[in-house]
Amino acid sequence: MDGGQDFADRQSHASVEERRAAEALIVDVEGFEGPLDLLLVLSRTQKVDLRQISILALAEQYLGFVERARELRIELAADYLVMAAWLAFLKSRLLLPPDPQGEEPSGEDLAAHLAFQLERLQAMREASAQLMARPRLGREVFARGAAEAVTVHRSTVHHASLLDLMQAYARVKTRDEFRPFVMDRRDLMTMEQALDRLRAMVGEAADWADISAYFPEDWRAAPKRRRSATAATFAASLELAKEGRIEIRQGESFAPIEIRRKDRA
Amino acid sequence: MTEIPETAQFDAPSREEAERMLEAMLFASAEPLASAEMARRLPEGTDVAGALEALRARYEGRGVELRRIGDAWAFRTAADLGHLLERHAVETRKLSRAATETLAIIAYHQPVTRAEIEEVRGVTVSRGTIDQLIDMGWVRLGRRKMTPGRPVTFVVTEGFLDHFGLQSARDLPGLRELRAAGLLDNRPPPGAGGEDEGAEDEAQDSLFGT
Amino acid sequence: MTEIPETAQFDAPSREEAERMLEAMLFASAEPLASAEMARRLPEGTDVAGALEALRARYEGRGVELRRIGDAWAFRTAADLGHLLERHAVETRKLSRAATETLAIIAYHQPVTRAEIEEVRGVTVSRGTIDQLIDMGWVRLGRRKMTPGRPVTFVVTEGFLDHFGLQSARDLPGLRELRAAGLLDNRPPPGAGGEDEGAEDEAQDSLFGT
Description:
The complex is a heterotrimer, with one copy of chain A and two copies of chain B. Chain A is mainly alpha-helical.
């Protein structure tokens, strides 16, 4: 960088003015979008192409700014101080002869990168301004005011897979097995029904007969109905036995239950 | 509030320019624009009526046309192209549970009467459900049954076999196979559509020992 | 959802007729229409690209112009007539400087990560800034970058192009000059990591197709 000599010249007659400018900037510190923004503003005071700015002079200006801010007891955000420290480091790099070992990036490289960053930020600012200045939709350019919506006609196609079908069938066929019994009035004989039937028939029952003989015709075959008829008829016969109208007997456990009329002698 | 014509300070535009201006205004407006309103927004001395007439002629026979609606004007899509503003969307939806069950019963029991379907399902089958299956081309009317009342029967169609990849309705797996394949549902909770899987099935099977 | 092309059964229309049809569709829509969508709604075999080009030429210099926006097309009023139409203008929230700069960086550097945006601006980018741009429909998430951490990238949308009257991101003002000046390069600070500029450049080349 060509910084050194140039900067020394400038400082001699421009420093007062610059200090004043720095103070003005400090008042405005809230208005900056960070240290890079501030550096960009400072670089403009050099009034040259960004590619030709003296990074050393810029670093001086920035450090001067931070110094003034301290004197004026203005709180600066941490990133401003980080930048100040970095610029102080850069300044020393630029002023000292390069490290012969050459491991670290040289002051020139660092300065060049900072110059690139400033130029890039400036370029993006200008690009953003150009973008915003374009004729914009809804401001200078307009879309169709009375847009006609496309009418969408929806139709529905139903589908089912073989699996759906089989599951549905299985569901239907097994539903009966699990249906809550209260739902099954059809297949359920109540004790009242059995009692009515038995009362009507028992007058004829002079001989012992299996209670199943008293089931209605259509309650004999289907196991479920037969079970229900058995239970209801058995309960009814207990009731009639209690009333003293019939007798009950069973040969042994699980043997058929038989009833007959009890003659009131 | 008074409107200050924005462009009144300019000279009256050429016919060509007036047409451009009207074109833009009419295009951007959400509603038909009264010619008086357009005149107010154009430089003084603009021949609005003439330019509108020229514009109408320019668009005649195009895909959009400039129409006069009372005192106002608007661009409108040419009437013969209205169909381009329509789109047909077909949505695929799963067949309802009632319809699937009814279809399954028809497939397994065909030819089957409506009363028989209801007998198997344990609930009444709505007219609409069978109609839907007929509309879909999966079910058709079979021969009448030779029982009192000669009720109509329902059978599945070629289209049904085709859709489900079956040679014939006899290819449908039996209950035993369904159970072996773990396809038997458990009891559906009343009201809820119970599509639950295997684990419970097993438990219930052993419980009821069928 | 399957689309059934309404007019597929007809023969391909003449150029004149295809123009009318496109004109009607495009005029009716406030949003840009993708050419694929238009092709779907037109009879099979229609030379959509050719008819669109012809239509664009026909409207050149008129009050309403046919603009290409990415893969889509839309009629828009000519930019020089905005003053006549200001009454239609929708007052949009004024974007902050942070937002406009972030937008420009995304547009010129896309696909770009948040860290890269911060690198250019020299300050952290608040969550809200990018959210606002996304809300406005100008920015969306792009593909993740193939770098450690696979950070998400941001790119500009078709809505952005439409809003700023750009046919593609290649037409951004000053893009060529910025590229030539190397200002769109991703240049890592000296001493920080390797010289991996090649890969980045390639990505941008393919994006901007230069």
